[in-house]
Amino acid sequence: MGLKGIVSRRRIAEAKMTRDEDVLKSRLDPSRLPRHVAVIMDGNGRWALKRGFPRTVGHQKGVDSLREVVRLSAELNIPVLSAYAFSTENWRRPPEEITFLMDLFVDYAGKESEELKRNGVKVRVIGRVEGLSPHVSEAIRMLEETTRGGRVLVLNLAVNYGARWEIVDAVKAITEKVWSGKLKPEDIDETVVSDHLYTSGLPDPDLLIRPAGEFRLSNFLLWQLAYTEFYVTPVLWPDFGRVEFLQALVHYQRRERRYGGLKRGL
Ligand code: IPE
Ligand code: IPE
Ligand code: MG
């Protein structure tokens, strides 16, 4: 069989990947799980419109997917999960949708904080949170405070997040340190930049999950994703559950990461 044949057989096998949770779990090597998974929670609107519902129903359903993915990450001992909830570009949407999304976040914080705490999840909201309305800021404060002691999983919730703004904020913070003499320009390196991002202290994502079939980053974690493995799936976020998450992890473990080096054994 030629290379084409091998590739297409592999594609078919992958498309047919089992939906049995136990089988998928048995295919995972617990010692090689990602230390950080990032997910762009996209496709809520399409999910709803396909069923004749308003887009907001898709957002509501998307919360269930987030809950499942958070639970499973904690169960599997994945230390960090970053979920993109609202981007700095999402302000371009109609005001009613924005209000709905903000209220949904407040609702999520109120309803989920106790379970998150029980499961050892520590929530960190990343983004430009200063500009958000008081009830959203209060929900963020409460959620972070309630889950402060979580030691199993760090959940970064990206709210009013834009990677370019994150880098601008880091540049400003570094510049201030240089001006005040706390940092020498020659000491600025990759670690210094990383330490001034919203994700400081956390490992970069090993795996990025991009549902809804889009091949773009939509301004998510531009710096941190430099060597991340991408997993793009056509599944819309509200349909993304435990099985889809396990499938993504199985795919991830089949990848060979070279970081600019050579294939093992060469
Ligand atoms: C993602 O779903 C949720 C947010 C961006 C807040 P979308 O609302 O973007 O859904 P689609 O892409 O229109 O299907
Ligand atoms: C990305 O989805 C942002 C979030 C999921 C929060 P978008 O729907 O905003 O992305 P684009 O506009 O299709 O790139
Ligand atoms: Mg979208």
Structure in a nutshell:
The chain is of the alpha/beta class and 266 residues long. It has helices spanning 3-15, 21-26, 44-50, 55-75, 95-118, 134-146, 163-179, 190-195, 242-254, and strands at 36-40, 80-87, 121-126, 153-161, 207-210, 229-232.
CATH topology of the domain at 32-161 and 205-252: Undecaprenyl pyrophosphate synthetase
Strand percentage: 5-15%
Range of helix content = 40-55%
User: Based on helices, strands and strand pairing, what is the structural class?
Assistant: alpha/beta
Small-molecule binders: 3-methylbut-3-enyl trihydrogen diphosphate, magnesium ion
Number of strands: 6
H/E series: HHEHHEHEHEHHEEH
Order of neighbouring strands in the sheet with most strands:
3-4-2-1-5-6
Assigned CATH superfamily of the domain at 32-161 and 205-252 = Decaprenyl diphosphate synthase-like
Radius of gyration: 20 Å
**Quick one: CATH class of the domain at 32-161 and 205-252?**
Alpha Beta
The total of helices stands at 9
**Average pLDDT, to the nearest integer?**
95
